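User: Sequence in, structure out. Go.
Assistant: Echoing your sequence, followed by the structure tokens.
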Amino acid sequence: MSNPLYISDLDGTLLRPDATLSDYSRNELNRLIANGLHFTVATARSIASIRLLLQGLDLKLPVINLNGALLSDLHSGRHHAIQAISPEIAQSVFEQIKAIGMLPFISTSNQGNDFLYYHRINNAGMHWYLDDRLNAGDSRLRQTADLSRTLVDSVVAFTVIDHRRALLRELRDRLEERCPGSLQMYLFANSYSEVGDTWLTIGDAQATKDQGIRLLLARGGYVLDDLTVFGDSDNDAEMFRVAPHAIATANATKEIHNLATETIGPNSEDSVVRYLSEHC
């Protein structure tokens, strides 16, 4: 007999609006996990970022990170699965980013080593991200004089940050035209900064949360019918479409509300963990 599996997004869902896991949520999740709850997270964040945010949380299952590009052990950082962008497509993406006058952050994974490369900081949004990673002690960070050399590693994500949303939308449209069916892209505002920056994240077409979930289901012997997911933003849409039980927080986007089978309170009220406490 299979066990129910619960998977939650982080930002806007499990985390509070200040991007923290409350003491209540941490303690109650640990109690539930110790009593047999099968729970993990699926997020656009990296394993380095998740580890810092979820300190003290005894997650036993792999975490789905970088929007499904990686399935990883939280404590060791070891990747069980990597869905990288093909070298040819990564080169094309990089050229289009340069052609539009921008510079990306490039996340790579190579023989067990993860890196987050950047060349130069061009705007306040990029500065915010760099400061955020420095303050978190992110060991992946590397500044390089030649970003093109990083493309020899397995590129799992490009992150392009700018205040000109229309220009990022143009970049996304160019990439969709030049690399049809090869990429998964998300355009969104950074809700944590005050500089008005917008992010475009670019990954392989198979680097989605639902694909990461399918790998986790197979790896753990879970049954899809026993899956419940929690989310709030548009990058949760794929996992909401695949899960029979898809629960939106009250602060979720319109698309997620439309896909949800149930709605709970906002992330500011620890609603995911209160739901789990009541139903598990």
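User: And one key feature?
Assistant: The chain has a mean pLDDT of 96.
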